[in-house]
Amino acid sequence: MKDHSGSINKIENKIRELLPVSTGELARVPSMLAYSLEGGGKRVRPLLCLKFCECVGGKEDDALYFACAVEFIHTYSLIHDDLPCMDNDSMRRGKPSSHIKFGEANALLAGDALLTHAFGILSRACREGGVDACKCIRAVGELSELAGVNGMIGGQYLDLKYENKQADADVLFTMDALKTSKLIEAGCVLGVIAGGGSEEDICRARAFALNLGIAFQIKDDLLETDGADNSDEINNKSTYITLFGKERAAELAEKYTATAIGELDGFGEQSAELKDIAFALLGRTK
Fold first, then answer.
1. What is the DSSP string of the chain?
2. What is the pLDDT of residues 90-107, one digit of tens each?
3. Does the global pTM surpass 0.90?
């Protein structure tokens, strides 16, 4: 896989720059956000945002604000997902989850703050980053839709609804197409918008993201099955492993990855890095 450390460093630096600043009685609040934001994630969604921007003829810097806004949303979703009322996970990326570190109420507020701040970042892309206002407005609409009721929130709702119930393959696909694919779609589509791509480019990005998201979730299920602390098993959730078994699930991950990569053919040679990222996600070990 190509070394994307330069792009990742850009994202990390911009995330730190965009964190809110507070003093006095509120001084601790930004540190609660930073604790989860700087938790060592793979930065898949913001990286895809930058690379889709480049793929349609833009520059990475054109998409940097958009990429960070998506990562703020993703991080808020992880904080809330770990809460006792959701998956009740005490560890995240090798360290105590936000609610273990700061308390449940503060973790809830940290997630809310990240969600709210993300849309402020999109407005700053216009005011500070030189991004065209129409692109920013489109980005606001896309991100709110993809992270909302008919996107990630809808998927989380189904995830909770089917705890301790047997979900069939159609339900599981719908759940993961919303819960996982939609925020990946946000990164991809916002990248195309930032780079000035066409509506056809956006459609290709959506199809890529749907399939990549399903492959990503299946791979997550496989990795979690191999781990010592399987929260899906603890919460009695249906997964691709429980429905199909590990061997068939691995085959499905390869199938959806191949389909995702095929959706990039319309971009030509410019999509080489995106294809490389998709292959790398299939082969990841954590």
1. ----HHHHHHHHHHHHHHS----GGGTHHHHHHHHHHTS----HHHHHHHHHHHHTT--GGGGHHHHHHHHHHHHHHHHHHHSTTTT--SEETTEE-HHHHH-HHHHHHHHHHHHHHHHHHHHHHHHTT---HHHHHHHHHHHHHHTSTTTHHHHHHHHHHTTTS---HHHHHHHHHHHTHHHHHHHHHHHHHHTT--HHHHHHHHHHHHHHHHHHHHHHHHHHHHSS--HHHHTT---HHHHH-HHHHHHHHHHHHHHHHHTTGGGGGGGHHHHHHHHHHHT---
2. 999 889 999 999 999 999
3. yes
